[in-house]
Amino acid sequence: MNQEKETHKPHQHAGRSSERLLNKEIILKELDIFPGAVILDAGCGNGYMSKEFSRMQKNSGKIFALDPDKNAIEILRQETPGTNITPILGDVTKTTDLQDSSIDLIYLSTVFHGFSRSQIDGFNKEVKRILKPKGILAIVEIKKEPTPFGPPLEIRFSPQELNEIIPLSPKKTVEVGQFFYLQLFENK
């Protein structure tokens, strides 16, 4: 693994700028969110997908919106009182306060490519700890091909590379925008 991948910061990503480029309808259809589901929106940024999940669930279930950006979490906290969204300051590459086997769906969008090798190891460990049996991990990433924005190609992951790195059962890959794909995994 090259040195750049090791030192790349997790929040130097397309994040907020990618929101308008993602096809949320396809993502939401593929996630197949059910009423009462417990969802973790890891690296939630401004929480736009947490709000979509909440709308789909009609305020049933529970959505944990996790991000290491204190300002983003504080703003989301102010925007979502009385909803099923719980903003949490934290990092999914480290142990969180979430309970073992408590999450039905973990959603991570345009963040994974910024993880170092040790962060990937921490992410895999935390995902295995908090995801329920048969729970789903959904990773949205920028395609590993030239795009008009985004991180250097050498730190991006193809769906095949994700399948080799993530210790869950790969389910399917879906295009979710001109420059993005969604990779779904199931906990064994």
Automatic annotation (TrEMBL):
Single GO molecular function: methyltransferase activity
Keyword match Transferase: yes
Keyword annotations of the record: Methyltransferase, Transferase
Transmembrane segments: none
InterPro entries the UniProt entry points to: Diverse_substrate_MTase (IPR051052), Methyltransf_25 (IPR041698), SAM-dependent_MTases_sf (IPR029063)
Domain Methyltransferase positions: 39-135
GO BP term, example: methylation
Keyword Transferase: yes
UniProt-recorded name of the protein: Methyltransferase type 11
